[in-house]
Design a protein that fits this description.
alpha+beta, GrpE, 5 helices, GrpE_head, 3-stranded mixed sheet, chaperone, single chain, cytoplasm, unfolded protein binding
Length: 225
């Protein structure tokens, strides 16, 4: 290789080195620095404080859950006791529901006993006493919604009348009650005993006697049930 060529190669290499050095001078060279220990300690302290806050919140929630559970258990126990008490009261109410009525009826019994002690006295006074007792009895029955209903002269109703016997009668258009042997009684709006009656039937409707008898037997059977 000639000397001139060697000199040319040397110059080219020098130019490349100068260019690389120029690039290094233009760039900002970052030199690693020593970590700030105080900042690290501060960050660590803040992290520990956050952990403590979270832990306290968790414990508080656990306490609230335990308290709520305890209240629920107590409420459930109270409701169970209330239910048992209501069942007991209802059972006693059904068992002794006639207690007040019986108490009122004892007054009638007391009056009858006193009247019987003087039965051998003045008949007029005895009769008057019995009438007063009977009046008081009707007042008690009325107080409790027990009422009798007259049937004589009314149209025969198989749902309310039990025909003991029947006979033909002129001058009537439909079967009607001629005589009442036992009065019908209602408890409020419910029939508790049908009236026992004798029924008059128009002669031209003689066949109605058999029909009425069948209806009457059916109604009597239902009432007995």
């Amino acid at each position: 290789m000639s000397k001139a060529k060697k000199d040319k190669i040397g110059k080219d290499n020098q130019v490349e080195r100068d260019a690389d050095f120029s690039v290094l001078k233009d760039e900002e060279i970052q030199i690693p620095t020593t970590p700030d220990l105080s900042k690290l300690e501060k960050d660590s302290s803040q992290s520990e404080e956050k952990d403590i806050v979270v832990t306290n919140e968790i414990e508080s929630l656990k306490s609230e859950i335990a308290e709520t559970k305890d209240k629920y258990i107590r409420l459930l126990a109270e409701f169970d006791n209330y239910k048992k008490r209501v069942i007991k009261e209802k059972s006693e109410l059904l068992k002794y529901q006639g207690e007040n009525f019986i108490y009122d009826m004892l007054e009638v019994i007391d009056n009858l006993e006193r009247a019987l002690k003087h039965a051998e006295g003045d008949p007029a006074s005895f009769k008057e006493g019995i009438e007063l007792i009977f009046k008081r009895l009707k007042e008690i029955l009325d107080k409790w919604g027990i009422k009798g209903q007259e049937s004589v002269g009314k149209a025969f109703d198989p749902a309310m009348h039990q025909a003991i016997s029947m006979f033909n009668m002129d001058g009537i258009e439909s079967p009607q009650v001629s005589e009442e042997l036992k009065k019908a009684y209602f408890y409020k709006d419910k029939l508790i005993r049908a009236a026992q009656v004798i029924v008059a039937v128009p002669p031209e409707n003689h066949n109605d006697i058999e029909a009425l008898s069948e209806e009457n037997n059916s109604t009597s059977g239902e009432l007995e049930k």
